[in-house]
Amino acid sequence: ENVLLSELKGKENVTRDGRKIEIFANIGSENDVDRVIENDAGGIGLFRSEFLYLGRSEAPSEEEQFASYKEVVERLDGKKVIIRTLDIGADKKASYLGLSEEDNPALGYRAIRICLNKKDLFKTQLRAIFRASALGNVGIMFPMITSVEEVKRIKIIVDEVKEELIAQGVTIGNPELGIMIETPAAALISDELAKEVDFFSVGTNDLTQYTLAIDRQNENLAEFYNPHHKAILMLIKMACDNAHKNGIWVGICGELAGDTALTRTFVDMGIDELSVSPTKVLSLRKAVRNI
Length: 291
Ligand code: PEP
Ligand code: MG
Known about the structure:
The protein is of the alpha/beta class. It has helices spanning 33-38, 62-75, 112-117, 119-132, 148-167, 184-188, 190-194, 204-212, 230-245, 263-269, 281-289; strands spanning 22-27, 43-48, 80-84, 137-142, 176-181, 199-202, 249-252, 273-276. Strand 1 (22-27), helix 1 and strand 2 form a beta-alpha-beta unit. It starts with 21 loop residues before the first strand and ends with a helix. The model has no long low-confidence stretch (mean pLDDT 97). Magnesium ion is lined by residues 143, 182, 203, 205-206. It is an enzyme of class 2 (transferase). Residues 7-290 form the PEP-utilising enzyme C-terminal domain.
């Protein structure tokens, strides 16, 4: 099959022997939604929320966040939108968070570690997401998970937010709750983690960094940063098998998801969803249809 990518709009992501896979898109702000729609993605597999928090002097309000999430969710018109909670740390500056300089920001006070500590900040974001979840098909995803304990703490806070919104008479939806598998620890205990959540999404950018002990931002290490390393593929396979064993779905939202040299491998593993930059959706669809 040698077709123009534009001719693949509206077509299924299906292999020649009938295996279907979801192809979603990653976005970093509501401005990216046009490209998601243009490229016929099946949904948004990773909505990075950092843009709301960066380059300003105070945290974004619930209303401001709600307005962004609402716009994206409504424009996706019933297609799934997976919003990732704040994934910020000492490398991405937000003065109002009062983060100190760190020698190893990638291993530091970041992402869910900040959210579990600054509960008000976390709850404000969750309130905005829960409100948006009433308007479409929303999932919530938590970054940088390393333990079951963290997930249990998150779920207690999520329940508090839901109860408070309901008590206030606010309409909420029933979003799926998922976690990113982007630390080796999370992949290794994915059997236990799968019992706590509705889905996994593998973050291969950080999973590669932490598994190979290679700073993903250090250009001098580019030749060693190898996401095709057997160890990475073994961890992805482990997360995939443990997800399915426990009846939940699993996707990949790191850069590797769009690497068509591995599409066959991911389909063979049984990965349910691949989320890539909007401009890669159709080339990935083509790769799937050629399997
Ligand atoms: C990842 O780590 O693979 C990922 C998708 O998240 P980010 O690139 O935002 O860290
Ligand atoms: Mg990451």
